[in-house]
Here is the input.
Amino acid sequence: MVVQSGAGKGALFADGAYEAKGARIKGSVSEAIADADVICKVQAPTVAEAQSLPQNSAFVSFLQPAADLDLIAVLQDRRITSFSLDLLPRISRAQAMDALSSQATVSGYRAVLIGADRLPRFFPMFMTAAGTVPPAKVLVLGAGVAGLQAIATARRLGAVVRAYDVRPAARDEVKSLGAAFVELELEAQEGQGGYAGEQSEDFLRRQRELIGKEVVASDVVITTAAIPGRKAPVLVTAEMVEGMSPGSLVVDLAAESGGNCELSKPGEEVTVGDVIVHGVRNLPSSMPMHASFLYSRNISEFLGLLNHDGAFSPDFDDEIIAGTCVTYAGEIRHAPTRELIEGGRP
Ligand code: NAD
Here is the structure.
């Protein structure tokens, strides 16, 4: 077990902590990976990093393969056995390896703290001698892992929370956390494996018409809606933001994948009159200690599946291995990525 020197620094884990657990520390990436059979990382490698991976080694990280075809071509050429944790099937056996879920938990929590920090009002209701303060009104759009964590956190802080999701299964989950489910006269959009299906522009237009008054009536809107492998749907328009009360804000967790708010810019705060649109980027890295703690557990569980009696021997009949494998022995195993590469890159 070799760790690149300083790899844990941003999460406040010193090199000595890894050595105490039996790992060896190497000064540079090239030294650290030189003899490695399996290399684990948080973010996808750059094309240059991928070119320096030992031939025939295995690589585990978030790759988002369909969005980076040049990288996948290098992994294929170098006969790397690559696995992308964002492709992990949503089955109960895979839950302990589910890095998307563990990081979404961090994002949902942090999004509420950003909202509470930037809002010029209290979250909880207060009845004081100096007057009664009403609770903040929080609207959560998209009640998957991040959305549910946002609801739970906002409730703990005392806000009144409303939420909406296109999957009917989300209704009971939202209610069980003490939030109200916003009922819209729209058909369900259930996709595969617990995810939402891709929605037509007509559906999204009708959704925007119905959700607009909910957005305008909220102090904090947290948007988390995503469709795997697609651009995030636009749910909050510029007109809605302009209609919000002074001091209110939108925290857009989908800013990096296209944005649920049409004004979001990833990593930036956009001000529209007296309303802030906060387009968050890589929120898990803003809480590195626990984000790393959870991600490392996901990785070690996944590595356990790749090993049999101490040898690296992935079983490609296992749906978790088959589902996450992107390249193997010079082939692209992830069908949508293969089709994109064979069909000519966009
Ligand atoms: P996600 O990040 O892909 O999307 C976030 C949410 O946005 C989803 O709930 C989706 O339905 C919703 N959404 C999409 N379009 C929308 C729209 N137009 N308006 C409102 N909401 C919209 O999803 P996720 O958080 O990764 O998880 C989705 C589901 O998978 C959840 O039900 C979760 O409980 C389930 N899950 C299961 C497992 C498992 O069984 N191993 C693991 C993780 C998640």
User: Anything to note?
Assistant: The chain is about 35% helix and 20% strand. The longest strand covers residues 137-141. The longest helix spans residues 99-118.
